Amino acid sequence: MFTVSSYSITRVAVMMHHTAYSTIVFDLDGTLLDTWPGLLQIVRHAAPGQARLDTAALRRALSLGIAPMFERAAAQLALSAPAAAAFVAGCAQHLPQQAPAYEGCETLLNTLRAAGLTLALCTNRDRASTLALLQARGWLAHFSHIHCLGDGLPAKPDPAPLLATLARLDCPPAQALFVGDSRIDAQCAANSGLTFAAHLGGYHSDLAELAPAALHYDHPRHLLRWLAQTHPRMLETEHG
């Protein structure tokens, strides 16, 4: 059984690599699903009539988790402590049960599984809403392990949840790729010693937040082509 220890971090040249990964670990919000529009609608519905919100800051806060995003909104609204708690609780009661997938993610997951890779999920979202979103899309069967906020470990960017996910799958970090979209994900990958692939359509504010990423991609087909350098079967599966 693989055990967690310290690992060196190697910067990988963009679009060039020589590692045949056995496991791909994904973030959820901003990486596979665009959950932001539905969550913003909840915040706006719960906020006072003419309240002004810094939506860019809220979007970035989503990478910390849903509750931190709602707490940031409450702070922007300058609510008292009791009112802020009620605001966050009220928002949490109306979480969307569905969210659109980014274009190409369905094909991405199907292709990776068909190529024989193990897929996992490591998210700062709570388990109930994570499972609801995955069930709505029929994606639960894709993932061999799902780690959520509230599973007994610190949230990302602490390396514990990502390394625990790999330990559960008996996969050393050198054989795993972490795919995310935010500063939190980039830091978690660095803290864990994993290669990081960054989705550009997610919840970061600039490219500097995603460093050091081995790959920046705006469509999953670019991620597949990059992985196909060491997994030729992927492109055969994608086009077959």
TrEMBL record:
Example of a GO MF term: phosphoglycolate phosphatase activity
SUPFAM superfamilies: HAD-like
InterPro entries assigned: HAD-like_hydrolase_sf (IPR050155), HAD-like_sf (IPR036412), HAD-SF_hydro_IA (IPR006439), HAD_2 (IPR041492), HAD_sf (IPR023214), PGP-like_dom2 (IPR023198)
Domain of life (superkingdom): Bacteria
Keywords of this entry: Hydrolase
KW Cytoplasm (keyword) present: no
Gene Ontology CC annotation, any one: cytosol
Catalysis: reaction(s): 2-phosphoglycolate + H2O = glycolate + phosphate
Pathway: Organic acid metabolism; glycolate biosynthesis; glycolate from 2-phosphoglycolate: step 1/1
EC number assigned by the record: 3.1.3.18
One GO biological process term: DNA repair
Family as reported in the entry's similarity comment: Belongs to the HAD-like hydrolase superfamily. CbbY/CbbZ/Gph/YieH family.
Name recorded for this polypeptide: phosphoglycolate phosphatase
